[in-house]
C-alpha cells in the first residue's frame, strides 16, 4: 500500500507531494518554489515575503463571507536526521515513505510529518470545495526548527486573520494553548595540539542507535544523551588510565536529543587490557541504566584504530572532557502552575570540530519561564567561559501564555466532544511553537494548536499514526464549519 491509497485521500495526496520536495531547515528554495508553483497550478492566490514565507488564500463558502478569517499555519522545513547506514541526501532525494500497519514511516530517515502534515492539511482545505468555512489564509512559514525565522520575519499584512489554527502539534486528543520559549547557547572551545605519544595505543569509542527525539517533546522520558555518555566514559577512563584525546564528535540539530557520539583517544599500551575490560563494564552499566528508557538495541563499542599524528594538549583534553561531562542536561525543573509539565530543560545537543582549531559545543534551553531559561543558559556560559570558550547566544524565542478563556478554544472543545464523544486534553507544551511570536506581532489574535499523533519526531524513527490523521482532518474541517 502507498500513502496515496490512505484516507482522507486529499490530505495524504498533498503530503505525498510534499515528501518529494527536499526541505531541510535553511534550505527551502525548492519548497518555496514548489508551493508557489502548486498554487499557480490550482489557480490559488499566493504571495511571498522577503524571508520566504508563503501565504495562499481561499474565499469563504457562499453565504459565509462575513465569518472571521481563519489562518491555517504550518512550517515548510523538516528536521533532517538519518540512520548511519542511510545513503539519503536531504538536499536532493525525496523521502521514501512506508505504510507499516497503522503507521507511516520513512526508510531510515525522518518522515517530515513534522510539519509536512500541517502543510498538507492546509493545502487540502484549499482544494476541497465540499467544505464549509469562512475566508481562509494558509501560512507556510520557513525555518521553524532552527530560529523560528519565518515567524520572526513575517511581514506586516501577509496575514489579516485574527483566528489562527497552528497545525504543528503531535498528539490526537490534545489541544495546545501555550508553549515554552527557547534559546541556543553556543560555546567555541579553542584547543592546541601536540604530537601523539608513540607509546599510546588508540581506540574509537562509539555509542549509537539511542532513540534521541525532540528535545521538547521527549526530554522528560529519561533517554540517554550520547554526547554526555561518551564524555562520562572518557572522564572515568582519564582518571583510571590517563589518555590522549584526538577527536570527539556527536549529535546534530539543537532541538534533537543526540543519538550517537564517537571519540578517538589513546591510552598507554600497558593499560589496554584494563581499558577494554572497563569498556565492557561501562557498556553493561549503561545498558542496565537505560533499559527502560531506551530498550536494549543501542550499541556501545570500543575498537582499536590507527594512531593519529596529533592529539589535543593534555590540559585542553581534560578541560573539554570534564566540562562536557559536567554540562547540565535534561529536565531542570517541573512547572508548579501546570502539573506534569516540564518547566525548564536543557539539551547538550552537539559537539564538533570547527575551523580555526576550535570545538563547537551547542546546547539548547527551553522554559515556560523566560528567566529560568536564561538562568540555565547563563550557567552554561559561566561553565564554558571558565575553560576559555567564547560563548554566544542565539536570539531567544518567546513563549506563548495560555488563554483558557479563548472563544476559539471553547468552539474547539465543543467540536471535539461532538465528533469523538470525549473531552480533549487542553494543555501547554514544553516544546516551542510559533504562536508566541504571532501573538507578540499581532496582539489579540486567538489561537490554538493541534495535529495528528506523531511519534519519535526529530529522529529516523519518526512515524505518523494513520487513524489519527483521519480524525485530525475531521476535527479541522468541523471546526472550520463551526467558526463560519
TL;DR?
This protein has helices at 9-19, 29-41, 113-127, 149-153, 226-241, 272-289, 291-294, 314-326, 370-385, 407-420, 435-441, 466-483; strands at 46-48, 54-58, 70-75, 97-100, 103-106, 136-141, 163-166, 174-179, 181-190, 193-195, 200-208, 244-251, 261-268, 299-305, 310-312, 330-334, 342-354, 358-367, 390-393, 425-429, 446-449, 454-455, 463-465.
Question: Characteristics of this structure?
Answer:
single chain; about 475 residues; alpha+beta; Aminopeptidase; Alpha-Beta Plaits; 2 domains; nine-stranded antiparallel beta sheet; six-stranded mixed beta sheet; about 25% strand
Question: Could you walk me through the main structural features you see in this protein, from its secondary elements to its overall organization?
Answer:
The protein has 484 residues and is α+β, with helices and mostly antiparallel strands. The chain has 2 domains: 3-180 and 399-483, 3-Layer(aba) Sandwich (Aminopeptidase), CATH 3.40.630; 185-393, Alpha-Beta Plaits, CATH 3.30.70. It has 12 helices and 23 strands. The strands form 5 sheets. Strands 9, 11, 12, 13, 14, 16, 17, 18 and 19 form a 9-stranded antiparallel sheet that branches. A hairpin with a 7-residue loop joins β22 and β23 (463-465). The longest helix has 18 residues, at 272-289. The protein is elongated.
Amino acid at each position: 500500500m502507498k500513502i496515496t491509497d490512505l484516507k482522507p485521500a486529499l490530505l495524504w495526496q498533498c503530503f505525498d507531494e510534499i515528501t518529494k520536495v527536499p526541505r531541510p531547515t535553511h534550505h527551502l528554495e525548492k519548497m518555496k518554489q514548489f508551493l508557489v508553483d502548486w498554487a499557480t497550478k490550482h489557480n490559488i492566490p499566493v504571495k511571498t515575503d522577503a524571508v520566504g514565507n508563503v501565504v495562499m488564500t481561499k474565499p469563504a463558502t457562499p453565504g459565509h463571507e462575513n465569518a472571521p478569517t481563519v489562518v491555517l499555519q504550518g512550517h515548510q522545513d523538516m528536521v533532517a536526521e538519518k540512520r548511519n547506514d542511510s545513503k539519503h541526501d536531504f538536499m536532493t532525494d525525496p523521502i521514501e515513505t512506508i505504510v507499516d500497519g497503522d503507521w507511516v514511516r520513512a526508510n531510515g530517515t525522518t518522515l517530515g510529518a513534522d510539519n509536512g502534515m500541517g502543510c498538507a492539511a492546509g493545502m487540502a482545505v484549499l482544494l476541497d470545495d465540499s467544505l464549509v468555512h469562512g475566508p481562509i489564509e494558509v501560512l507556510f512559514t520557513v525555518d521553524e526548527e532552527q530560529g523560528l525565522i519565518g515567524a520572526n520575519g513575517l511581514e506586516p499584512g501577509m496575514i489579516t486573520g485574527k483566528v489562527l489554527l497552528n497545525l504543528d502539534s503531535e498528539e490526537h486528543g490534545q489541544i495546545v494553548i501555550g508553549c515554552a520559549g527557547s534559546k541556543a547557547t553556543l560555546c567555541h572551545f579553542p584547543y592546541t595540539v601536540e604530537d601523539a605519544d608513540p607509546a599510546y595505543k588508540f581506540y574509537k569509542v562509539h555509542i549509537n542507535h539511542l532513540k534521541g527525539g525532540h528535545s521538547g517533546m521527549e526530554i522528560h522520558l529519561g533517554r540517554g544523551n550520547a554526547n554526555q555518555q561518551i564524555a562520562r566514559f572518557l572522564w572515568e577512563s582519564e582518571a583510571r588510565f590517563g589518555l590522549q584525546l584526538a577527536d570527539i564528535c556527536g549529535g546534530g540539530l539543537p532541538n534533537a536529543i543526540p543519538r550517537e557520539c564517537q571519540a578517538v583517544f589513546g591510552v598507554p599500551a600497558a593499560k589496554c587490557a584494563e581499558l577494554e575490560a572497563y569498556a565492557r563494564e561501562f557498556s553493561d552499566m549503561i545498558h542496565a541504566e537505560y533499559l527502560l528508557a531506551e530498550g536494549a538495541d543501542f550499541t556501545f563499542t570500543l575498537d582499536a584504530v590507527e594512531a593519529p599524528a596529533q592529539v589535543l594538549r593534555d590540559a585542553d583534553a581534560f578541560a573539554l572532557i570534564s566540562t562536557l561531562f559536567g554540562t547540565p542536561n535534561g529536565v531542570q525543573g517541573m512547572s508548579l502552575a501546570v502539573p506534569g509539565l516540564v518547566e525548564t530543560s536543557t539539551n547538550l545537543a552537539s559537539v564538533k570540530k570547527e575551523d580555526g582549531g576550535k570545538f563547537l559545543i551547542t546546547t539548547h534551553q527551553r522554559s515556560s519561564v523566560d528567566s529560568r531559561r536564561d538562568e540555565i543558559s547563563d550557567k552554561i556560559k559561566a561553565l564554558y567561559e571558565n575553560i576559555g570558550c567564547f560563548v554566544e547566544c542565539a536570539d531567544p524565542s518567546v513563549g506563548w501564555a495560555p488563554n483558557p478563556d479563548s472563544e476559539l478554544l471553547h468552539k474547539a472543545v465543543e467540536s471535539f466532544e461532538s465528533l469523538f464523544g470525549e473531552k480533549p486534553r487542553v494543555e501547554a507544551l514544553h516544546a516551542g511553537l510559533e504562536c508566541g511570536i504571532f501573538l507578540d506581532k499581532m496582539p489579540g489574535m486567538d489561537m490554538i494548536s493541534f495535529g495528528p499523533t506523531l511519534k519519535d519526531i526529530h529522529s529516523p524513527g519518526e512515524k505518523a499514526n494513520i487513524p489519527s490523521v483521519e480524525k485530525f482532518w475531521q476535527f479541522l474541517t468541523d471546526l472550520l464549519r463551526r467558526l463560519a
